[in-house]
Amino acid sequence: MFATLVALPPEVSEEVEQGILESDVGRNCQILHVSLAGSLPEAIAEGLIVLWDDGGALSDVLARCQRVHACRVVARTHLVLLTGRAPEQTEVLADAGADECLPAPGTHWGARLVALRRRLVPKSAGDEASAPAVPELTDRERLESQWVLADRMASIGTLAAGVAHEINNPLSYVSSNLSYMRELLSQQELPSEQLMELREVVAEAQEGAGRISGIVRDLRTFSRADEELHGPVDMAHVVDGALRLLRNQIALRARLTCTLEPVLPVHGNESRLSQIVVNLLLNALQALPDRTPEENRVRVSLRASSSRHVELEVSDNGHGMAPDVQRRIFDPFFSTRPVGEGTGLGLSICLTLVQAMGGRIEVSSAPGWGSTFRIVLPAQTAGWTEAPLVPVVPEPVSPMMRRRLLLIDDEPSVGNSVSRLVRDVYEIHVVQDAREALRLLSMGERFDAILCDVMMPGMSGLDFVVELERLAPELALRTGLMTGGAFTAQAREFVGRRTRGLLEKPFERERLCTFVEHLFQ
Q1: Beta carbons within 8 Å of 329's beta carbon, 6+ residues apart
Q2: Which of 140, 275, 337, 488 is most deeply buried (CB count within 10 A of its CB)?
Q3: Domain end among 105, 120, 135
Q4: Quick check: is 21 in a domain?
């Protein structure tokens, strides 16, 4: 069972916590400390909730009470307000959602937990009024899932300014280089020295576009929702992605030292591991005092701690933590930051995710010396071999020998650019509507393979594949999908079962040709 203590002063919180834990029923109670100024869970599913009245305006206390009441599952919780107000005011507070009003710090917490537990236990099977019990594990899992999502969204908000800076820098010279290329190409003839400069301009634009693509790919990995999919994960890739996302914030606050040794992949989930690394890096930055970046240090190291384990270490030379703080850093909603800054969820969620992947977190810290967080994860030593797809770029062939490729994408510019890339290799036909593609096929048009976008108005790529399986099942086996990133776990599972694969945008000629050749096989 949970006991959620909302905005209690430290001394009152200690007394309430002690009273709960000293009772028989509260001995195994999980106690959460919540700052009302921070982010409350979307739904407090079960247990005792204790709210503090700071003695301010009645309207403020009413608003706080109503906010907590709106976040709880009423049938499975008991809301206690610690207040010293007069009876007529407590009646108003009861109308706002309080189940009970007590003078601080309150007593008989065990009796309240027993009464609440009795309400949660289902009645006998012969009782007509009995209702099926809501499984406690399901409620807890749902609550933890909400915390993970809330923490990830808070991290994305923190990343936003730095990511915008990282994207705008290469975007500025990509745009200016394209403008310069357009100006040069408007001339009738170009001297040889300008042709050389044009090649440099194109190379710079490609490099900038690649940087932007990498940032978007890292964000997509961080935020995607396929959290239950576990497999071999390259931790060096995860760390690189997190450092790219936070590069601007790190540069403004500290000097970074990064040592990534070759290690075996770990068995886990890439997006969750990315969330863990980002959280640890943000915590390290927030622990640094206000001094010049040259004086602050953040160190990241990845190594094999044994033949069966991989170790990631994030260290800082910040304020450090006293022993009493270290004992509570993994408690949900516990935070040493000022009220209103952060949710206090980050380290608690890191611990939950690491343990779910069979790992552990170790912490060493001392006031004035900084902190070191060490994550130890099991390596995936069996059932994994690195077998990268060999790039295939077909040589140009004569028009009579070219295989026919049907491209379906609602963006005309995508169709035009793909046609330019591969028209010397394939005979390519482009349409902007999946229904138009089905009409062509029903009229007898023949193609060797199909490449279709996922997100399109009218008919999506997934719906197109379903219809194609009825109309031309042999061609459905040579159909691949492409996406710009808006992709659910269910859609990814569909692709794995019913198509030849997924090509993620943006792509260059080599990767496009490799994917298309795979469809022909």
Answers
A1: 321, 347, 363
A2: 275
A3: 120
A4: yes
